[in-house]
Design a protein that fits this description.
By secondary structure, the chain is an alpha/beta fold. It contains five helices and five strands, in the order βαβαβαβαβα. It has a five-stranded parallel β-sheet, sandwiched between helices. The two termini are 20 Å apart. 30% of the residues are buried.
Length: 126
């Protein structure tokens, strides 16, 4: 059975590259959203198996989007993997306090991205 993933990222090149990586390497069915607001709507209507969420976005950032996902009974149980360029120790500690499946740091290895997402889902951290 094909797993569905929603990528929420404001950068078109990141969305497209990530989508190709996941479709080819992991045979995911990929949905995309260009903003937190659009991502909230798609998550509620499409109910993906997992969400790959960019932390730094204009208007509604990833952490605000995450809070809104967790408040909504329709989306609160969908595992979320943060995709971020923030790799500082303090930021990583902040992420460990959140109810997320994992954090993947940009730039990521396109050949292992699908495996990293699957590992986060299997590891039981969600």
């Amino acid at each position: 059975m094909t797993k569905r993933i929603l990528i929420i990222d404001d950068e078109q090149d990141i969305r497209e590259t990530t989508q190709m990586c996941l479709e080819i390497a992991g045979e995911w069915e990929v949905l995309t959203a260009v903003s937190g607001k659009e991502g909230l709507i798609k998550a509620a209507t499409e109910k993906p198996d997992v969400i790959l969420l960019d932390v730094m976005m204009p208007d509604m950032d990833g952490l605000t989007t995450l809070q809104n996902l967790q408040k909504n009974p329709t989306t609160q149980n969908i595992p979320v993997v943060l995709l971020t360029a923030k790799a500082q120790a303090a930021e990583q500690r902040q992420f460990t306090q959140l109810k997320i499946a994992a954090v993947i740091t940009k730039p990521y290895d396109p050949f292992t991205l699908s495996d990293q997402v699957l590992e986060a889902l299997i590891s039981g951290s969600v």
